[in-house]
Amino acid sequence: MQHFIRTLILAAGITCVQQYSFAQDKTQGVIHYDITYNIHASLKPDQMQYKDLVPETITEKAELKYNGQRLKAYFNDDIQKEQDGVNSTIKISSEDGNEKYADIDRKTLWWVDKSKNPPVLVEKPLFEKEEDQEKETESTETKKVLDYNCRKLIVKSKHGLLTVWYTTELPLKAGSPASAFVAKGVVLAVDSKRMSFSATSIEFVPVAEKDVTPPADLKTVKSSDHKGI
């Protein structure tokens, strides 16, 4: 009887170790973000007359799913808000859409252009330098985001300064819910005049390959050809 009890205890101990090992698998997961849009700072001169009808800032959710070095990033770009009895529809404009897929090893990014009828899948190099990007400056400054050590990167463009905080402590080599991708690591926070975001939680859970695979039923066009369609 004592031998039987010891066997049960040993088996239970092995089960606990296996469960703990699975829980620590960080090669798949979902990163949750809060994105804050500075609506007033984004208004054009001819839109300033509506300043008092829309909130100064709006915070929405975003997420990044990844499996190995493949990912899907998504945020809501069609926001409905009510303030003082006034309903507002706010459309977030993004040059590469609100639904993106990336294969880090292939250094390729795809985004869904829903403005086309039917929608198309636009393909371009993941780390392609934008035309309006003038300079990147690596800083020695660091800070913690969700207990991950993050390094600071300053990106200067014609739209202003972008402060990027990225970590190399996750197995994913690059990632972001918006357009900021860094070859060195995962972007957990960004600050700029018009928009900012920060990771709020990370779930290390299984992610199906289909969830990080670009839609196969959409026509794929190269970014160089996209402007002409």
Automatic annotation (TrEMBL):
Entry-linked Pfam families: PNGase_F-II_N (PF22252)
Protein name: GLPGLI family protein
